[in-house]
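pls design
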């Protein structure tokens, strides 16, 4: 049998999650790891999303690693190019380049229950690993709806996360599909140059102003000379969001006041009552992600923009047809229609102890233990797994909590010694999910009267964390061995052939 390269840990993906895992592993003294990346550079979603206007709606000083503050963020809300540059910088200063394997797309990873390791087939070869840290992210595989007639459309078609920079939009008639966080950044960026923009809005979003400004040279110098000032700034940004989340999770009715602010924000730019009516949501603010923009509504008020308050249902030649029957002839269609979040394609490529894929196991809903591990998938964990998403704060906080969990997991395996693996107990997974779903019942994401990508095909919210980031941090500080079964491979010399695997209660 072919001997493959073996590593202690294989990290998949080099976005915030994967690079964060790499930094943390090195800090834990683990150097025997690789980061498998299907593209040819780091950055994850901040590499793939390069559409005009792409920026983060979480303030820069909070949307960065706590262990790598950047005193030089140029704006309060960073553009994509600055976040991508930050991730390249992290890769260099933490000496991660030698661990990176670019153009290595994971095709399949299969648990070998005899040897207690993962066999990972990639586009650049096969390797084995004791532990897999899957950091592919929920926003990595674009979703384009199956629209009849799309294949025969004679013009240009692309998704927001696969922007074609060689295609000029100047003077073109463009259909923008969707009104999510991506679309509301694209619309004001392209509106001034296109001949006409038809916006297909299935559900109007709630939009609040984004108070974005340049961070002055004085502020930056201060942050550089006195790093605690940057920490203080981050602390304030975090604390405000930590308090706000109570309204989302426990008192959704209090959000009515925020709706008034959002309506006033809209009224400032949209003078036409008919258009205002089209743009006014009928669900509780916060049920879908609250969008932040200062230029979305002003762009919609321009004469070259037509808002169709309906979804795209069909394409006939170069004509896009809405559910309400309205039509527009266009040269290009841009899909801002989101990502495969609750049906992540990577789940089809993970084969666990029972020979089933993670996608099969999750076919009735994604379930994990503490957002990280899954029963029947020993020594496999995911960063930004089920119910770790946030509706109002920085995902980097959640990622860092998960890195604490990952670090403790690796440490615990080292302490146990020998060839060992941990497999989440089904009972522990169920108990964790029961607690999460009980808390979810009261949240705005479940009671707010909308459908969103937070909910899966069965209407279950398997994406959002229904609490504060502090609560998640404390729930993921340590690995509780009582929640895992311990798998131990036989000692090669001493073990009789029939003792291939011993399954014992962890901690026993
Ligand atoms: P999204 O939030 O999933 O939005 C998809 C949009 O496409 C929705 O408006 C949806 O309508 C619409 N849609 C789907 N099928 C349609 C059809 N047939 N006709 C018309 N509209 C259709 O996707 P996204 O905007 O790419 O954002 C995804 C996530 O990425 C965000 O929620 C956020 O977490 C992240 N993101 C973050 C930032 C940031 O600033 N930090 C920026 C961009 C993205 P319905 O609402 O009716 O389903």
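designed seq:
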């Amino acid at each position: 049998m072919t001997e493959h390269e073996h590593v202690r840990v294989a990290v998949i993906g080099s976005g915030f999650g994967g690079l964060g895992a790499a930094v943390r592993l090195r800090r834990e003294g683990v150097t025997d790891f690789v980061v498998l990346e299907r593209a040819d550079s780091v950055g994850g979603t901040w590499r793939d999303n390069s559409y005009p206007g792409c920026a983060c709606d979480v303030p820069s000083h909070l949307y960065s690693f706590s262990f790598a503050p950047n005193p030089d963020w140029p704006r309060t809300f960073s553009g994509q190019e600055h976040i991508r540059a930050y991730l390249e910088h992290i890769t260099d200063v933490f000496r991660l380049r030698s661990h990176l394997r670019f153009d290595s797309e994971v095709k399949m990873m299969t648990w070998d229950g005899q040897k207690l390791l993962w066999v990972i087939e990639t586009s650049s070869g096969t390797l084995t690993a004791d532990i897999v840290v899957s950091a592919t992210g929920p926003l990595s595989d674009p979703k384009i709806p199956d629209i009849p007639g799309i294949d025969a459309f004679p013009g240009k078609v692309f998704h927001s996360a696969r922007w074609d920079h060689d295609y000029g939009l100047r003077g073109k008639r463009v259909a923008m599909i969707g009104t999510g966080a991506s679309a509301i950044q694209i619309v004001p960026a392209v509106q001034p140059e296109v001949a006409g923009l038809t916006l297909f809005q299935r559900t109007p979003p709630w939009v609040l102003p984004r108070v974005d400004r340049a961070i002055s040279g004085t502020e930056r110098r201060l942050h550089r000379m006195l790093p605690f000032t940057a920490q203080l700034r981050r602390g304030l940004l975090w604390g405000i969001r930590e308090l706000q989340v109570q309204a989302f999770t426990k008192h959704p009715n209090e959000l009515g006041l925020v709706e008034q602010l959002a309506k006033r924000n809209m009224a400032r730019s949209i003078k036409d009552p008919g258009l205002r009516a089209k743009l006014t949501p009928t669900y509780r603010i916060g049920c879908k992600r609250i969008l932040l923009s200062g230029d979305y509504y002003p762009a919609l008020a321009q004469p070259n923009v037509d808002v169709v308050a309906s979804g795209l249902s069909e394409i006939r030649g170069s004509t896009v047809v809405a559910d309400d029957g309205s039509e527009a002839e266009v040269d290009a269609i841009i899909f801002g229609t989101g990502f495969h979040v609750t049906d992540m394609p990577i789940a089809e490529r993970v084969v666990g102890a029972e020979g089933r894929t993670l996608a099969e196991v999750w076919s009735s809903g994604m379930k994990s233990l503490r957002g990280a591990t899954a029963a029947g998938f020993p020594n496999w964990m995911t960063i930004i797994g089920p119910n770790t998403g946030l509706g109002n704060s920085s995902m980097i906080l959640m990622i860092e909590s998960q890195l604490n969990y990952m670090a403790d997991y690796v440490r615990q395996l080292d302490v146990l010694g020998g060839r060992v693996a941990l497999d989440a107990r089904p009972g522990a997974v169920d108990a964790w999910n029961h607690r999460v779903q009980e808390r979810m019942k009261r949240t705005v994401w479940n009671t707010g009267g909308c459908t969103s990508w937070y909910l899966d095909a069965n209407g279950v919210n398997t994406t959002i964390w229904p609490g504060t980031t502090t609560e998640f941090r404390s729930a993921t500080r340590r690995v509780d061995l009582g929640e895992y079964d311990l798998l131990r491979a036989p000692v090669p010399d001493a073990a009789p052939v029939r003792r291939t695997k011993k399954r014992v209660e962890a901690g026993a």
